[in-house]
Design a protein that fits this description.
Blueprint (H helix, E strand, L loop, with lengths): L1 H49 L3 E7 L14 E7 L18 E2 L14 E2 L14 E6 L15 E9 L6 E15 L11 H6 L6 E6 L1 H10 L4 E6 L12 E3 H5 L1 H11 L2 E7 L2 E6 L7 E2 L2
Antiparallel strand pairs: 1-2, 3-4, 5-8, 6-7, 6-9, 7-8, 7-10, 11-12, 12-13
């Protein structure tokens, strides 16, 4: 009887142990499941925080002057940090395609509503009273590598074939003309921006000058007579150069150089009487020297 009681007591103890173990295992499984679920949530939160929050904005491929309709401008998308986006940044380009620029747009800078307007912008040139604006075609050479920008001053030259002696000549036809715009952009270039800013500007093909009415007619006529060019002046240089014209004979024929210097010497200008052109000496006295 005592032995049977001991056996029952041993079985009961084992059942208690097994129950405790089972409960422990169940708790372990539940804790493990809870931990894994929590880790997944934390992991998702961490990944979400690690990913940069960006917004798609738009920037022009090239510099755009004032008064241009956006439908004619080529833009590219840029991903911009959301916490650095301006409040007036344009996030939907389709909504503003019929707008016009009121500021110069630079490549790499996101488009903003303050830079555009739904109304067409009329840009007026800063023309002085009594003066005229005349445009000429330019390239990298004639625009002095793009340094002939609004606000600078230039001399206009004409290279042509002299019909009388068949020599090739280059003559200054307009002195000290002020540049009003380059490629339709009247923005005065700031030297403080440095050469890199100038290099980033798009290629321009026209340049507008401020000249007198007579000089405007001279330039318009010269366009049909030969090739126009520009010679850039120093900002404080307003004088008239002593030499206004040079022919290929002056460059290639030493005798012509000596004779030309003896005959003309120093001249301060030219005057046309009838069909003949004469040089005025520097002292502005004495006889006029025929040039043709």
């Amino acid at each position: 009887m005592l032995q049977k009681t001991r056996r029952l007591s041993s079985v009961s103890f084992r059942l208690k142990i097994l129950s405790i173990v089972a409960i422990f295992m169940v708790l372990t499984v539940l804790i493990t499941i809870y931990s894994l679920t929590s880790l997944k949530k934390v992991s998702k939160s961490t990944v979400s925080m690690a990913e940069p929050l960006t917004v798609t904005l738009y920037t022009p491929e090239k510099s755009v002057p004032v008064g241009v309709q956006l439908s004619t401008v080529r833009f590219r998308e840029v991903l911009w940090p959301k916490n650095q986006v301006f409040e007036d940044a344009v996030t939907n380009l389709k909504d503003v395609m019929n707008f016009y620029t009121v500021e110069v747009l630079e490549p790499g800078t996101p488009l903003r509503f303050r830079q555009i307007s739904s109304e067409p912008i009329v840009v007026s040139l800063p023309l002085s009273p009594g003066m005229r604006a005349v445009s000429i075609e330019v390239d990298e050479t004639t625009s002095v590598e793009g340094f002939a920008r609004p606000g600078t001053r230039v001399d206009v030259t004409l290279t042509y074939r002299n019909p009388k002696n068949k020599s090739l000549e280059t003559r200054i036809i307009v002195h000290n003309a002020r540049v009003l715009s380059l490629g339709g952009d009247p923005t005065v270039f700031s030297a403080g921006k440095g050469p890199e800013a100038r290099k980033s500007q798009p290629r321009r093909t026209t340049l507008t000058l401020e000249v007198t009415p007579e000089e405007a007619l001279v330039i318009q006529t010269a366009k049909q007579s030969g090739r126009l060019g520009l010679i850039m002046r120093a900002p404080d240089d307003s004088g008239v150069p002593k030499v206004e014209a040079v022919s290929d004979r002056f460059i290639t024929d030493p005798n012509y150089q000596v004779e030309n210097k003896k005959e003309i010497g120093c001249k301060s200008g030219t005057v046309k009487i009838g069909d003949k052109l004469f040089a005025i000496s520097c002292d502005k006295v004495g006889e006029l020297i025929p040039l043709e």
